[in-house]
Amino acid sequence: MYEVSTMKSYQRALKTLASGNAYELTFYQSSVSKPKARVYMQAALHGAEIQGIAVIRHLQERLAQSDLPFDFKLLPLANPAAFDTKMGEYGYGRFDPRTGMNWNRGFVNLLSASDFFEAFECERFINTHAHLGYDQAIHVFEHALKERLDILVNASAGQPPETQLALILHQEALDADYIFDLHCDSISKPYLYTPQYLLNKRLLNFTAQHFITTPCRFSPCFNQAVFYPFWHFTEQWNRHTGETNVSPKKAFTYELGSKESYCSETAKTTLDGILNYVTNAHNPVSQAWWCTEDDYHRLRAPRGGIFELSCELGKVHLEKEDIGVLHTFPGQEASLPIAYEDTFIPLTVTASPVAHQGDELVKIMTRYQEVS
Q1: Phi (first) and psi of residue 263, to 5 degrees
Q2: Most buried of 125, 167, 224, 253, CB within 10 angstroms?
Q3: Looking at the 3D structure of the chain, how many domains does it have?
Q4: pTM of the model
């Protein structure tokens, strides 16, 4: 049996404000003597997406009572500046109000060149370290990435706050085996973004029933910035050796449902699914669906109007079945039905029905398949 661990915390400074107050990140760590794996979890990188805070709170309570054989590093509030930014009664937390930049689009590709180092040459590294075998070589590779990231963090003092934040979060998560970035969407069913190499029936341990698979290409969002170098390295290694290794990083963006929502009971159920996945508990949901990121479509308003949803989120719908109606004012053009030419599963709908031409109305899964 593992002893129940004591939760410890530490802070990392972000920036001081004109008032003299300061923002900092508070991390919580729970460690055991011989962990089976390391788990990193963060919430509220987008300030209005707060349900992840509830999930982490319940995990902290669980760790105070249970003997889970894992090391945990938890960050309940990954972006205090975004959390504090309000527009009226609503959180304006997805974008930096100074620059308009999405807070989850500033993460770096550690394989690329920077002002401080050259591009990382995976092929040369593999040729040099092939004698170690994959398991040892990828640990050496991880250490090399850590050195590059440390250089960037140490040089970031004069950089914009969003750059510093992204580098610190990346640095804190780099050595974890399981990485969970907890988000929410507009009005939404829960779903996960998962790297393609993790597409298997183990996903059925999650309570969410919908999965979007991401390809082996870099993206400046958090979870892909974490897993991409290891995936790329693994593919290069397998090509060089003829082996069939799978990248060790299990990194997910978990969309927990609707933003501006906080529910403790739902958080408990969500946490059960996450821990079932981490422990590989073989406690699956009855059915789940997946599609590729390229087949996860945003449908936009063909003209301005007021959008009314007429389909059920999370359910399979037939081709040309109405998704909703774009209404106009009396005396203007007739209301316009919004449909899709093939079967689909709608997952999210805009939080505001007021839509200008080109605004996103819904996101739908197409060409979906059952997780098996």
Answers
A1: -135, 115
A2: 224
A3: 2
A4: 0.96
